[in-house]
Design goal:
Blueprint lengths: L1 H22 L2 E2 L10 E2 L3 H8 L3 H31 L5 H9 L6 H11 L6 H8 L16 H26 L3 H9 L4 H29 L3 H6 L11 H11 L3 H32 L1
Antiparallel strand pairs: 1-2
Helix pairs in contact: 1-12, 2-12, 3-7, 3-9, 3-11, 5-7, 7-9, 8-9, 9-12, 11-12
InterPro entries: MetI-like (IPR000515), MetI-like_sf (IPR035906)
Keywords: Cell membrane, Membrane, Transmembrane, Transmembrane helix, Transport
Membrane topology: Multi-pass membrane protein
Length: 283
C-alpha cells in the first residue's frame, strides 16, 4: 500500500529536486540544446548573483512575506475577536469572509489590476475623492507604490483566512476559564492577552508558517500586476526564477536559483520553529 505513495512522492518532490541539483552544475540553455551542454561547477550560482536581480528579489520577497503576515494576522485577529463577540448576522459574515480565499490568486490579480487602472479604477477614484496625490506613473508603475499595491491585493485575499481560522480557535477556548477570569476582575484586553492568545498559539504558529511559505513563493500577483517592475522594485524570487527558466530558457542558472531558494526557505523555517519551540519551553 505504501509503494504508490512513495512513487508519487518521488515523482512530485524528489525527482524535481534531484533534477535541479544535477543541472545546477551544468551550462544548459534550451535555446541552443535540448540537453545539458557542459559542466561549469559553481558558475551558475555566481551568475545567479551577477546576472540576475537575486538580492533585490530576495529583499522584495522577504518584505512581502513579513509585512504581509504581520498585517494579515493583526487584522485577522481583530475580526476573529469581533466574530466571537456574538455579532449579528454571524453566519452571513462568515460566508462573506470565506469568499476571497476561494478566488484563484491570478483572478485576484486581474481584479486589482482593473481597480488600480488610472482612468476608471476604484482606487485612483478614492484617492482623488480624498485629495490624495496619485503617483505620476500610476500605482503599478511607480517604484514607491508598486510593492504596496501587490501587498494590498494579498492582504485583501488572505486576511479573511486568518480571521476564520483564528475565530475557530477562539470559540474552542474553554468558556469557563474566560468566565472565571472575568469574575476575578480581568478586563477584555487582559482576557485576550493572558488566556485567549496563549491558548490559540499553536494554531497561530501553524497558519503563520503556512502563509510565510505561500508568500515566499508569491508569483501570480506579481505576474499579473507588475511583471517584476518598474525596474526590479517588485521582482520576487519566484518571478525571477520564472524569467530565467521559462523566458530566457537558462536552465542551469534557474536550477542554481532553485537550490538557493529551497536552502533559504528551509533556513528561515528552521529558525522560526526553533524560536517557537524555545518560546514554548520558556512558557
Amino acid at each position: 500500500m505504501l509503494a504508490p505513495s512513495f512513487i508519487l512522492l518521488f515523482a512530485l518532490t524528489l525527482y524535481p529536486l534531484i533534477f535541479a541539483v544535477r543541472n545546477a552544475f551544468f551550462y544548459w540553455n534550451l535555446q541552443t540544446s535540448p540537453t545539458p551542454q557542459m559542466f561549469v561547477g559553481l558558475d551558475n550560482f555566481k551568475n545567479a548573483f551577477t546576472f540576475t536581480p537575486f538580492m533585490a528579489s530576495l529583499r522584495n520577497t522577504l518584505l512581502i512575506a513579513f509585512i504581509g503576515i504581520i498585517i494579515e494576522i493583526t487584522i485577522g485577529m481583530f475580526i476573529a475577536l469581533a466574530l466571537s463577540a456574538k455579532m449579528p448576522y454571524l453566519t452571513f459574515v462568515r460566508a462573506l469572509l470565506i469568499m476571497p480565499t476561494t478566488i484563484a490568486p491570478i483572478i485576484v490579480g486581474f481584479m486589482f489590476r482593473y481597480m488600480y487602472w488610472d482612468v476608471t479604477g476604484l482606487i485612483p477614484w478614492i484617492a482623488k475623492t480624498l485629495h490624495i496625490p496619485e503617483p505620476g506613473a500610476g500605482y503599478l508603475g511607480s517604484t514607491g507604490t508598486a510593492l504596496p499595491a501587490i501587498l494590498l491585493a494579498d492582504i485583501w485575499q488572505w486576511t479573511p483566512f486568518f480571521a476564520i481560522v483564528l475565530y475557530a480557535a477562539i470559540v474552542s477556548v474553554d468558556s469557563e476559564m474566560i468566565e472565571a477570569a472575568r469574575v476575578d476582575g480581568a478586563g477584555g484586553i487582559r482576557v485576550v492577552w493572558s488566556i485567549i492568545l496563549p491558548t490559540i498559539k499553536p494554531v497561530m504558529v501553524v497558519i503563520v508558517l503556512l502563509q510565510f511559505m505561500k508568500l515566499f513563493n508569491i508569483f501570480d500577483l506579481v505576474y499579473v500586476l507588475t511583471r517584476g517592475g518598474p525596474g526590479d522594485s517588485t521582482m520576487t524570487l519566484s518571478y525571477s526564477l520564472f524569467q530565467q527558466g521559462l523566458v530566457n530558457f537558462n536552465i542551469g542558472v534557474a536550477a542554481a536559483m532553485t537550490i538557493m531558494i529551497v536552502a533559504i526557505l528551509n533556513i528561515l523555517v528552521f529558525i522560526y520553529t526553533k524560536f517557537v519551540m524555545k518560546g514554548a519551553k520558556l512558557s
